Amino acid sequence: MSDSDETKKKAEPRKKTIDPAALEMLGRAEAAGIGTVFSRVDEMKPCPIGASGSCCQLCAMGPCRLVGKGAAEKTGICGATHATIGARYMTRAIAGGVAAHSDHGRDIARTLLAVAKGHAGSYQVKDTDKLYRVAAIMHIATEGRDVNDVAAEVAQRALDNFNGTAGDELSYVSRAPAKRQAIWRKYGLVPRGVDREVVESMHRTNVGVDQDAEHLLDQGMRTSLADGWGGAMLATDLSDILFGTPKPLVSQANLGVLKKDEVNIIVHGHEPTLSEMIVAAAQDPELVEYAKSKGAAGINLAGICCTANEVLMRHGIPPAGNFLHQELAIITGAVEGMIVDVQCVLQALSPLAQKFHTKLITTSPKAKIPGATHLEFDETRALETAKEIVRMCIDNFQNRGDVAIPDYTGDLVAGFSHEYINYMLGGRYRASFRPLNDNIINGRIQGAVAIVGCNNPRVTQDEGIVYLVHELIKRDILVVQTGCAAHASGKHGLLTPETMQIAGDGLREVCEAVGMPPVLHLGSCVDNSRIMTILSQVVEEGGLGDDISDLPVAAICPEYYCEKALAIGTYAAASGVFVVFGVRNPVADCTEVVDIMSNGWEQKVGGQLVFEPDYEKILEMVTGRIQAKRQALGIHEEKERVLFDMAARREL
Ligand code: NFS
Q1: Which of 86, 324, 355, 605 could form a cystine bridge with 593, CB 3.0-4.6 A?
Q2: Helix (H) or strand (E) holding 460
Q3: Which protein residue's CA is at the shortest distance from atom 7 of ligand 1?
């Protein structure tokens, strides 16, 4: 590199985000000399040894670093190879992610049990139809029984699934296509209990226990399946039972949803239990009056991260942004209170909130943050606690200083539960996935890709997500989204029906006929389980093979940062989906592990988990996969395009 190249490189700092609202707030932070996750990431170089899977920290003989000449052949002090170290890393990361989602699910099950027993008066069973459907899957009798009786038994069965006392297989394994279940049984991948698989993973990754990479990674898959077809799927279903099954609604996303003249409260984290009550409290006429008495025009609620998705899907509460927006929201100076529970909450929020007037309020008995106000939430006095918190935020309105809210929002439609998609496609009297299958078979829709997961400040915020959404829908590939990736599309206006204008002709015709956007927001990260349900139903509908691995589908997690994402990616792969992660490969040096998770899993379970930071290559990989699957199904031939006429529309 010449000197001038060197200067040029220095003069052009890495692009941090493509979101204009984020850029505006980063400017404000810089002017005030305030650090954010975006600036700290530049100051902290990742350790190259750990970043690529060459460091083992599992015992006090080490840490062992397998680097230098002949690194590939080196072992740790105990003799562990790169393969063992990488497989242990992945399995532990998966167990960590599963533990998070499943503990969330367990709490919802406990709440449902409390409701059924009359101990949680602020809540009730909102969707009895869904309760009965879940009961049927669990083989729980419903006829002639009281709703709360059924709810109690469903909740108890869910808890048994966590505890591992529900039998030899989790209740929801039966929801997968028969062929998929057979594959899981053949390789011993059927999860037996959520806690049991997490504990067994932690046990087997101890030094001196399981040392065979493939065997370890099988346990990684089994543990992940306890999430996708266990903890997370239960979290989704029981949340729908308690808080309602989502239906499409309109909203907006980005920091512009904050209001200058109102008390702004942000709910951030993951569990819907408290945020549901905050939604109720923020609409309480007495509290709205109280806010007015303090000089505010009202109470404005917004969300960050997956709590945002939960309250967006069910109430249309606008998300103020995704993972990397949590600090930026506070930097607007307009947030009276940020109420957090568990997961994805940056510790840096606490010192940052102290620089502004924002009250950071922790609420979960599981998570305290030094410097934050802790107001513990329990379901027996949920609404009272929520009101107390809202009142605290209102009282804080008068302490506001200088406010700068970036004037950017994206319109969006969210709330596509699998039940609604079924209904939307087939209509009230014959809800079915048939039209979707037919349009995949006739080629109007080439396939479907899930773009999910986090933000990671190591890459340009939202860039890969927005690029991939555009490129895929242009190629007639339907996109479904969850988590912070869905917020990215929401902020950039991609979750609206108008987006069909940039879709390919075939996809656009179907979207026009059904009246749906080509990019569907399916919810939070635990709601990735909805995608598993949809895939199973599409297989069941017929015409596209007899297993999930036959379908022309793929999943991408362009900006992953955490263990939960790895857990989700693994259960998708173990369910037969081709999965690509961006950012970097955490086990790149462990070539045997990389090979097992790609070629090995392809042969064993028909899915793969691969890492590829280059978005163009990701696009090539997933479109190549979709075409290969179409070819295998014999539906790849370009048919003469027949435009939708009135009869075809009516048929749809
Ligand atoms: Ni998923 Fe949701 Fe966002 Fe990533 Fe965090 S909020 S559970 S982990 S960062 S998508």
Answers
A1: 86
A2: none
A3: 525
